Protein backbone atom coordinates (compact mmCIF):
# COMPACT_ATOMS: atom_id res chain seq x y z
CA UNK A 1 0.00 0.00 0.00
CA UNK A 2 1.29 3.46 -0.89
CA UNK A 3 0.35 6.45 1.20
CA UNK A 4 0.66 10.17 0.47
CA UNK A 5 1.12 13.23 2.60
CA UNK A 6 -0.61 16.53 1.98
CA UNK A 7 1.48 19.62 1.26
CA UNK A 8 -0.95 21.73 3.28
CA UNK A 9 0.88 20.78 6.47
CA UNK A 10 3.95 22.80 5.51
CA UNK A 11 2.85 25.61 3.17
CA UNK A 12 5.18 28.33 4.51
CA UNK A 13 8.29 26.12 4.38
CA UNK A 14 7.47 25.06 0.85
CA UNK A 15 6.78 28.60 -0.37
CA UNK A 16 9.98 29.95 1.16
CA UNK A 17 12.09 27.22 -0.44
CA UNK A 18 10.35 27.75 -3.77
CA UNK A 19 11.03 31.50 -3.79
CA UNK A 20 14.65 31.02 -2.76
CA UNK A 21 15.04 28.43 -5.51
CA UNK A 22 13.90 30.92 -8.14
CA UNK A 23 16.34 33.53 -6.84
CA UNK A 24 19.27 31.12 -6.93
CA UNK A 25 18.54 30.25 -10.56
CA UNK A 26 18.59 33.85 -11.81
CA UNK A 27 22.10 33.62 -13.33
CA UNK A 28 21.80 30.03 -14.56
CA UNK A 29 22.10 29.01 -18.23
CA UNK A 30 19.96 26.00 -19.17
CA UNK A 31 21.47 23.13 -21.17
CA UNK A 32 18.47 22.92 -23.51
CA UNK A 33 15.42 24.86 -24.64
CA UNK A 34 11.98 23.40 -23.95
CA UNK A 35 8.73 24.36 -22.29
CA UNK A 36 7.26 23.30 -18.97
CA UNK A 37 3.74 23.72 -17.60
CA UNK A 38 4.91 26.64 -15.50
CA UNK A 39 7.76 28.71 -16.94
CA UNK A 40 11.00 28.28 -14.99
CA UNK A 41 9.56 25.42 -12.95
CA UNK A 42 9.54 21.63 -13.08
CA UNK A 43 6.25 20.46 -11.60
CA UNK A 44 6.47 16.91 -10.23
CA UNK A 45 3.57 14.65 -9.23
CA UNK A 46 5.18 12.95 -6.23
CA UNK A 47 3.80 9.62 -5.03
CA UNK A 48 4.86 7.90 -1.83
CA UNK A 49 6.77 4.77 -2.82
CA UNK A 50 10.06 4.50 -0.93
CA UNK A 51 12.88 4.48 -1.80
CA UNK A 52 11.95 5.94 -5.18
CA UNK A 53 9.51 8.72 -4.38
CA UNK A 54 8.25 10.52 -1.27
CA UNK A 55 8.08 13.94 0.35
CA UNK A 56 10.98 14.56 2.73
CA UNK A 57 11.58 17.27 5.31
CA UNK A 58 10.05 20.62 4.38
CA UNK A 59 7.89 18.93 1.72
CA UNK A 60 10.98 18.38 -0.43
CA UNK A 61 10.67 15.94 -3.33
CA UNK A 62 12.84 13.02 -2.20
CA UNK A 63 13.77 9.48 -3.22
CA UNK A 64 15.71 8.10 -6.17
CA UNK A 65 13.34 9.43 -8.84
CA UNK A 66 12.97 12.82 -7.21
CA UNK A 67 16.72 13.24 -6.72
CA UNK A 68 17.33 12.46 -10.40
CA UNK A 69 14.59 14.90 -11.44
CA UNK A 70 16.09 17.57 -9.20
CA UNK A 71 19.50 17.08 -10.84
CA UNK A 72 17.91 17.52 -14.26
CA UNK A 73 16.15 20.65 -12.99
CA UNK A 74 19.51 22.03 -11.87
CA UNK A 75 20.99 21.43 -15.32
CA UNK A 76 18.02 23.20 -16.92
CA UNK A 77 17.80 26.08 -14.41
CA UNK A 78 14.37 25.06 -13.19
CA UNK A 79 12.89 25.37 -9.72
CA UNK A 80 11.23 22.18 -8.46
CA UNK A 81 7.57 22.26 -7.50
CA UNK A 82 6.39 19.00 -5.89
CA UNK A 83 2.71 18.08 -5.72
CA UNK A 84 1.76 15.19 -3.43
CA UNK A 85 -0.56 12.79 -5.26
CA UNK A 86 -2.00 9.33 -4.79
CA UNK A 87 -0.27 6.78 -7.05
CA UNK A 88 -3.58 6.06 -8.77
CA UNK A 89 -3.84 9.73 -9.81
CA UNK A 90 -0.21 10.44 -10.75
CA UNK A 91 -0.43 9.52 -14.44
CA UNK A 92 -3.63 11.53 -14.82
CA UNK A 93 -1.83 14.59 -13.42
CA UNK A 94 0.64 14.34 -16.29
CA UNK A 95 -2.00 13.58 -18.92
CA UNK A 96 -4.17 16.51 -17.81
CA UNK A 97 -1.28 19.01 -17.78
CA UNK A 98 -1.12 19.51 -14.03
CA UNK A 99 2.41 18.06 -13.72
CA UNK A 100 5.39 17.79 -16.07
CA UNK A 101 6.45 14.37 -14.80
CA UNK A 102 5.52 11.79 -12.15
CA UNK A 103 7.87 9.94 -9.78
CA UNK A 104 7.46 6.48 -8.31
CA UNK A 105 9.30 3.73 -10.25
CA UNK A 106 7.11 3.96 -13.36
CA UNK A 107 7.82 1.08 -15.71
CA UNK A 108 8.50 1.80 -19.36
CA UNK A 109 5.68 -0.26 -20.88
CA UNK A 110 4.30 -0.44 -24.42
CA UNK A 111 0.78 0.09 -23.08
CA UNK A 112 1.76 3.25 -21.21
CA UNK A 113 3.68 4.55 -24.23
CA UNK A 114 0.45 4.58 -26.24
CA UNK A 115 -0.90 7.56 -24.29
CA UNK A 116 2.22 9.34 -23.06
CA UNK A 117 5.95 9.55 -23.55
CA UNK A 118 8.55 8.00 -21.28
CA UNK A 119 12.06 9.30 -20.73
CA UNK A 120 15.25 7.34 -21.21
CA UNK A 121 15.68 4.60 -18.57
CA UNK A 122 16.66 5.75 -15.09
CA UNK A 123 17.40 2.34 -13.53
CA UNK A 124 16.16 -1.25 -13.55
CA UNK A 125 13.89 -2.87 -10.99
CA UNK A 126 16.12 -5.79 -10.00
CA UNK A 127 14.86 -9.20 -8.93
CA UNK A 128 15.79 -9.92 -5.33
CA UNK A 129 16.26 -13.23 -3.50
CA UNK A 130 15.30 -13.31 0.18
CA UNK A 131 16.76 -16.06 2.36
CA UNK A 132 18.56 -16.76 5.60
CA UNK A 133 21.44 -18.31 3.65
CA UNK A 134 21.94 -15.33 1.35
CA UNK A 135 21.43 -17.28 -1.88
CA UNK A 136 22.19 -15.45 -5.13
CA UNK A 137 21.44 -17.93 -7.94
CA UNK A 138 18.26 -19.15 -9.58
CA UNK A 139 19.71 -22.67 -9.22
CA UNK A 140 19.45 -22.21 -5.45
CA UNK A 141 15.65 -22.13 -5.78
CA UNK A 142 15.32 -25.56 -7.35
CA UNK A 143 14.04 -28.16 -4.89
CA UNK A 144 13.13 -25.51 -2.30
CA UNK A 145 9.80 -24.11 -1.14
CA UNK A 146 9.76 -20.68 -2.78
CA UNK A 147 7.35 -17.76 -2.55
CA UNK A 148 6.92 -14.71 -4.74
CA UNK A 149 4.50 -11.82 -5.18
CA UNK A 150 1.90 -11.84 -7.95
CA UNK A 151 2.32 -9.47 -10.89
CA UNK A 152 6.09 -9.44 -11.29
CA UNK A 153 7.84 -10.17 -14.60
CA UNK A 154 9.54 -13.29 -13.29
CA UNK A 155 6.41 -15.12 -12.08
CA UNK A 156 5.66 -17.09 -15.26
CA UNK A 157 9.27 -18.20 -15.66
CA UNK A 158 9.40 -19.33 -12.01
CA UNK A 159 6.15 -21.27 -12.46
CA UNK A 160 7.75 -23.23 -15.31
CA UNK A 161 10.95 -23.81 -13.36
CA UNK A 162 9.57 -24.61 -9.91
CA UNK A 163 6.06 -25.93 -10.53
CA UNK A 164 4.21 -26.86 -7.33
CA UNK A 165 7.13 -25.64 -5.19
CA UNK A 166 6.24 -22.02 -6.00
CA UNK A 167 3.70 -20.26 -3.80
CA UNK A 168 2.13 -16.96 -4.93
CA UNK A 169 1.30 -14.13 -2.53
CA UNK A 170 -0.88 -11.04 -2.99
CA UNK A 171 1.71 -8.73 -1.43
CA UNK A 172 5.24 -8.53 -0.02
CA UNK A 173 4.17 -8.44 3.63
CA UNK A 174 2.44 -11.82 3.48
CA UNK A 175 5.40 -13.39 1.70
CA UNK A 176 7.87 -12.00 4.23
CA UNK A 177 5.79 -13.33 7.13
CA UNK A 178 5.84 -16.88 5.73
CA UNK A 179 9.56 -16.60 5.04
CA UNK A 180 10.30 -15.57 8.62
CA UNK A 181 8.15 -18.38 10.05
CA UNK A 182 9.70 -21.01 7.77
CA UNK A 183 6.64 -21.82 5.66
CA UNK A 184 8.82 -21.05 2.65
CA UNK A 185 12.60 -21.25 2.40
CA UNK A 186 13.28 -18.53 -0.17
CA UNK A 187 11.35 -15.47 -1.27
CA UNK A 188 11.53 -13.68 -4.60
CA UNK A 189 10.54 -10.02 -4.68
CA UNK A 190 11.83 -6.66 -5.86
CA UNK A 191 15.30 -5.97 -4.47
CA UNK A 192 14.32 -2.43 -3.50
CA UNK A 193 11.38 -3.75 -1.44
CA UNK A 194 13.79 -5.83 0.60
CA UNK A 195 16.16 -2.90 1.08
CA UNK A 196 13.33 -0.81 2.53
CA UNK A 197 12.17 -3.68 4.77
CA UNK A 198 15.70 -4.30 6.06
CA UNK A 199 16.16 -0.62 6.82
CA UNK A 200 12.89 -0.65 8.77
CA UNK A 201 14.16 -3.62 10.81
CA UNK A 202 11.32 -5.93 9.77
CA UNK A 203 13.38 -8.67 8.10
CA UNK A 204 15.22 -10.15 11.06
CA UNK A 205 18.03 -12.45 9.86
CA UNK A 206 16.71 -12.63 6.30
CA UNK A 207 19.31 -11.54 3.72
CA UNK A 208 18.36 -9.80 0.49
CA UNK A 209 20.54 -10.26 -2.59
CA UNK A 210 20.28 -9.47 -6.31
CA UNK A 211 19.59 -12.55 -8.41
CA UNK A 212 22.47 -13.40 -10.76
CA UNK A 213 21.56 -13.46 -14.47
CA UNK A 214 20.02 -16.75 -15.58
CA UNK A 215 18.54 -17.43 -19.03
CA UNK A 216 15.66 -19.41 -17.51
CA UNK A 217 14.31 -16.29 -15.81
CA UNK A 218 14.28 -13.43 -18.28
CA UNK A 219 13.80 -10.75 -15.61
CA UNK A 220 17.27 -11.51 -14.22
CA UNK A 221 18.81 -10.55 -17.56
CA UNK A 222 16.39 -7.86 -18.76
CA UNK A 223 14.79 -6.29 -15.71
CA UNK A 224 12.01 -3.74 -16.08
CA UNK A 225 13.27 -0.22 -16.78
CA UNK A 226 11.83 2.82 -15.01
CA UNK A 227 11.45 6.27 -16.55
CA UNK A 228 9.62 9.55 -16.07
CA UNK A 229 6.20 9.75 -17.77
CA UNK A 230 5.62 13.06 -19.59
CA UNK A 231 3.21 14.61 -22.09
CA UNK A 232 3.01 13.00 -25.51
CA UNK A 233 3.23 16.29 -27.40
CA UNK A 234 6.22 17.81 -25.58
CA UNK A 235 9.00 16.18 -27.62
CA UNK A 236 11.55 18.93 -26.88
CA UNK A 237 11.02 18.29 -23.17
CA UNK A 238 11.72 14.59 -23.68
CA UNK A 239 14.81 15.19 -25.81
CA UNK A 240 16.26 17.46 -23.12
CA UNK A 241 15.47 15.02 -20.32
CA UNK A 242 16.92 12.09 -22.26
CA UNK A 243 20.17 13.98 -22.87
CA UNK A 244 20.42 15.04 -19.23
CA UNK A 245 19.66 11.53 -17.97
CA UNK A 246 22.39 10.14 -20.20
CA UNK A 247 24.79 12.74 -18.78
CA UNK A 248 23.84 11.77 -15.22
CA UNK A 249 24.47 8.12 -16.06
CA UNK A 250 27.83 8.89 -17.67
CA UNK A 251 29.21 10.94 -14.78
CA UNK A 252 28.08 8.42 -12.16
CA UNK A 253 25.44 10.64 -10.56
CA UNK A 254 22.57 8.17 -10.93
CA UNK A 255 24.65 5.31 -9.52
CA UNK A 256 25.51 7.51 -6.50
CA UNK A 257 21.85 8.39 -5.97
CA UNK A 258 20.90 4.70 -6.04
CA UNK A 259 23.56 3.76 -3.48
CA UNK A 260 22.59 6.70 -1.26
CA UNK A 261 19.22 4.96 -0.75
CA UNK A 262 20.79 1.57 -0.06
CA UNK A 263 20.27 0.18 -3.56
CA UNK A 264 22.95 -1.33 -5.78
CA UNK A 265 24.56 1.07 -8.23
CA UNK A 266 24.40 -1.64 -10.90
CA UNK A 267 20.68 -0.90 -11.24
CA UNK A 268 21.81 2.15 -13.19
CA UNK A 269 23.28 -0.11 -15.88
CA UNK A 270 20.01 -0.20 -17.79
CA UNK A 271 21.22 -1.26 -21.20
CA UNK A 272 19.42 -0.05 -24.32
CA UNK A 273 15.98 1.46 -23.90
CA UNK A 274 13.17 -1.07 -24.25
CA UNK A 275 9.46 -1.27 -23.52
CA UNK A 276 7.74 -4.04 -21.61
CA UNK A 277 5.14 -5.69 -23.82
Account of the protein in words:
This protein is α/β, with parallel strands linked by helices. It has two domains: 7-124 and 224-268, 3-Layer(aba) Sandwich (D-Maltodextrin-Binding Protein, domain 2), CATH 3.40.190.10; 127-220, 3-Layer(aba) Sandwich (D-Maltodextrin-Binding Protein, domain 2). Helix content is 32%, strand content 18%. The protein has nine helices and 14 strands. Helix 2 packs across helix 8 (235-250). The longest helix is centred in the last third of the chain and has 16 residues, at 235-250.
Secondary structure class reads alpha/beta
CATH superfamily of the largest domain: Periplasmic binding protein-like II
Rg from C-alpha positions? 20 Å
How many domains? The number is 2
- The pLDDT mean sits at 90
**Through-space gap between termini:** 25 Å
Main sheet: strands, sense, barrel = 5 strands, mixed
E-strand count: 14
Per the principal axes of the C-alpha atoms, what is the gross shape? Answer: elongated
SSE pattern: HEEEHEHEHEEEEHEHEHEEEHH
CATH topology descriptor of the largest domain: D-Maltodextrin-Binding Protein, domain 2
The CATH C-level name of the largest domain is Alpha Beta
Please state how the strands of the largest beta sheet are arranged side by side: 10-9-11-8-12
Number of helices, where a helix is a run of at least 4 consecutive DSSP H or I residues:
9
- The CATH architecture designation of the largest domain is 3-Layer(aba) Sandwich
How much helix is in the residues? Answer: 25-40%
List segments where confidence is low: pLDDT < 50 over at least 5 consecutive residues: 1-24
> Strand portion, in percent?
15-25%
Amino acid sequence: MRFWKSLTAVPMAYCAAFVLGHAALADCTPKHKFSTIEAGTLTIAVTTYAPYSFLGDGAKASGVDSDIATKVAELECLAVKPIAVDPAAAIQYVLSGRADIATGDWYRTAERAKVMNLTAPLYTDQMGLYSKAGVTKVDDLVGKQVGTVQGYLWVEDLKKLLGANLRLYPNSVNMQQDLKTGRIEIGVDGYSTGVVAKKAGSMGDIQVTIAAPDPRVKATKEAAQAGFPYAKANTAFGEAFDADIQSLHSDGTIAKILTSYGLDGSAGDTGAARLLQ
